[in-house]
Amino acid sequence: MKKASTSGTIVQEYKIASSRFATGVTITTALRPDGSPLGLTVSSFTSLSLDPPLILVSIQRNCRAFPDLRAAGFFGVNVLAAHQQSLSLRFASGIKERFARIEWYRGKTGVPLLCDVLASFECALESSAVAGDHEILIGRVLHVFSCEGHPLVRFSGSYCGLRELPSVADNVRAACA
């Protein structure tokens, strides 16, 4: 069967339309077979199930770190705070020593976890599925940490912050006053 190709126009339109969905920024981490840490910036992350607790990340299969991440068995997902844009850029770059001169520690499963993040998830690889040029990794959450703060957000190809909107109830009360 011949593989269908996608025209350049639809790919460009798809990229632009997809960038209109605001998303948080994470760094997915694991250990290489030699025990050294690996990490990459990932915005395709979501909670998947509460019972059992599952998350998913979508990783481009031609990413250099993908084979080691896939083989690791355990991985971490670190949800970045608004002030951590430099970490996002670092882990999205071609820098080889991404963990040099940054604060991190080994979680209970041994996976590298970053300090000062809004949340971290330590997961065992539950399953995976190939989807186009990506592979979806589904992780069973074994350990979790979270704290208060504001997230790092990507929208329309740029980093941005969130602003709180008044609740609907506050708007109704104000209108009825």
Write the layout of secondary structure elements.
Blueprint: H1 8-19, E1 23-24, E2 26-31, E3 37-42, E4 45-50, E5 53-60, H2 66-71, E6 74-79, H3 85-92, E7 104-106, E8 112-114, E9 119-131, E10 134-146, E11 153-155, E12 158-160, H4 168-176
Antiparallel strand pairs: 1-11, 2-3, 2-6, 4-5, 5-10, 6-9, 7-8, 9-10, 11-12
Task: Write a brief caption for the model.
Helix content is 20%, strand content 41%. With 177 residues, the protein is an alpha+beta fold.
List keywords for this structure.
seven-stranded antiparallel sheet, 12 strands, alpha+beta, single chain, 177 residues, 4 helices, Pnp Oxidase, Chain A, 20% helix
Structure, described:
By secondary structure, the chain is α+β, with helices and mostly antiparallel strands. It has one domain (8-176): Electron Transport, Fmn-binding Protein, Chain A (Pnp Oxidase, Chain A). Helices cover 20% and strands 41% of the residues. The strands form 3 sheets. It has a 7-stranded antiparallel beta sheet with strand order 3-2-6-9-10-5-4. The termini are far apart. The model has no long low-confidence stretch (mean pLDDT 89).
